[in-house]
Specification:
The chain is mainly beta. It folds into two domains: 46 residues, no CATH class; 141 residues, Jelly Rolls (Sandwich). The protein contains two helices and ten strands. The strands form three sheets. The protein has a four-stranded antiparallel β-sheet. Strand 5 and strand 6 form a beta hairpin. The protein is elongated, with a radius of gyration of 23 Å.
Length: 195
């Protein structure tokens, strides 16, 4: 921020004329400035609460990740990584995602309507979205954009050093020609807990 605290030495600096101005007591101005400093970073991004930073990250899943079952693929037990864990004392809270399917030459086939965004740690992933229909993403026969949000009717326990991933219970099948990719824009809160 480009603001300064009011002190006994600078309280009248630059004040040429009182016309059109209002009196702001230094104490109240300084409390406002402290609040701005605590909640706005130098780049202008807003931090809603101390220790909470909202971020959006883009991850592009390749055809191999979409049909695969190995670590890092959507049909692996931990899913395809969308947001990496930030370490001890930091919790990731899923907020929403926009999934952009860039259609290739042919649509994927198979797959089920059982794709979700999970949050958790290795071996302990919990669905934080309702199931996403395969036709809304990789089995679509054209480009598509789908928004998914956090489940609203359930309590979701969060643990430190967790990650966010996309998991498909039933992987689609590669169409055999140039297949599309899935761009995942994930918005999440990064919460410093000290735990």
């Amino acid at each position: 921020m480009n603001s300064k605290k009011i002190t006994e030495t600078n309280h009248s600096a630059g004040l040429q004329d009182n016309a059109g101005s209002a009196v702001v007591r230094g104490k109240f101005y300084n409390e406002l400035k402290d609040d701005f400093d605590a909640n706005f970073r130098d780049n202008g991004e807003y931090t809603p609460l101390a220790g909470v930073v909202q971020k959006t990250v883009l991850t592009t899943l390749t055809a191999t990740q979409i049909v695969g079952t190995a670590a890092g693929d959507v049909n692996h037990a931990d899913g395809a990584l969308l947001v990496a864990a930030k370490g001890a004392g930091v919790v990731l809270q899923f907020v929403s995602a926009v999934l952009v399917y860039d259609f290739g030459v042919a649509a994927y086939t198979g797959g089920g309507d059982d794709t979700v965004i999970n949050v958790g740690i290795t071996g302990t992933q919990v669905a934080h979205t309702a199931a996403i229909a395969a036709a809304a993403i990789w089995t679509a026969a054209a480009d598509s954009i789908t928004q998914v949000v956090e489940l609203s009717a359930s309590d979701q326990a969060l643990v430190a050093n967790n990650f966010i991933s996309l998991y498909a219970g039933t992987a689609p099948t590669q169409p055999g020609t140039a297949a599309g990719v899935l761009r995942c824009y994930v918005t999440y809160n990064e919460i410093t807990t000290g735990l």
